[in-house]
Amino acid sequence: MANSFTKKEPSDGSILDKRPTADDDDAKLHDVGFESSGLERNFNTWSLLFMSFCTSVTWEAISSASAQALTSGGSSSFVWGFVASAVGTMLIAMCLAEYSGMIPTAGGQYHYVAKLAPPKYRRIFAWFAGWITMLGWVTCSLAGIFATAMQIQAWAILFSDTYVYERWHTSLLVVGLTTVFTLFAIFEIKRLHRVIFIAMFAHTVGYFATSIYLLVHVTPKNSAEYVFKDFTNLSGWESDGVSIRLLPPR
């Protein structure tokens, strides 16, 4: 594919500015057979990068999944399972990065399939890819909102002696949070990139605060042999293989 980045001469005429612009993005879309949607671009490079960090919820997801991992294989399965998942995730990310470099569209996977699949099967493959991707977005978003609702209830239980836990409270919180997030995305989308910067700050500070607190206050500390070799199957399944497969992907 021909390089579509245009070189613009600055006012002083001394050097050529090679930084990509919105027009360059539109030109790249045109090169692969798509036209710009005309939607306003509210994110910059940093906000997109920070959004990727925050939506990956790396250490937060590990914290929430640690109990299941420790009972379904022990510390060694937790550590080495994370390594295996990280390698697999990196391979997937490298493949998607290659595709997004060739076809830089917001549609993502279904656009890749529509352009690269055999012509005979493009429509059906792209249809399935699009719906599977969308359902993945919905379920992942709902899982995050559900976890937030349960965390709010956990705070209520921790700080209030009078609060009585009810499961329908969780459902009500999920509906309320979803409504708030939806309204924000519709009416305050221009402010979203600022919220992402705040979220990245909380994400980073929370990681260091949690790590330092655990290293300082958790006693006694287990040996390296326990961390890297111990295997414990408390999942209820007799087969260790089944128990390991129950581990979450993170």
What structural keywords apply?
250 residues; mainly alpha; 10 helices; 2 strands; 2% strand; globular; transmembrane helix
- What is the spatial order of strands in the main beta sheet? 1-2
**Helix content, binned percent:** 55-70%
Low-confidence stretches: 1-17
Distance between the termini: 36 Å
Give the overall shape, derived from the CA principal axes. Answer: globular
**Rg, nearest Å:** 23 Å
Q: Major sheet: size, sense and barrel closure? A: 2 strands, antiparallel
Please report the total strand number as a whole number. 2
Structural class: mainly alpha
Into which percentage range does the β-strand content fall?
Answer: under 5%
Number of helices: 10
Question: How is this fold's topology laid out?
Answer:
Elements: H1 22-31, H2 45-56, H3 58-71, E1 72-73, H4 74-102, H5 109-116, H6 122-159, H7 167-187, H8 192-217, H9 224-229, E2 232-233, H10 240-245
Antiparallel strand pairs: 1-2
Helix pairs in contact: 2-8, 3-4, 5-6, 6-7
Q: Could you explain the architecture of this structure?
A:
One of its GO terms (cellular component) is membrane. Pfam families: AA_permease_2 (PF13520). This protein is an all-alpha fold and 250 residues long. It has a domain at 124-187. It is 68% helix and 2% strand. It contains ten helices and two strands, in the order αααβααααααβα. The chain has helices at 22-31, 45-56, 58-71, 74-102, 109-116, 122-159, 167-187, 192-217, 224-229, 240-245, and strands at 72-73, 232-233. The longest helix has 38 residues, at 122-159. The chain is globular and about 60 Å long. The two termini are 36 Å apart.
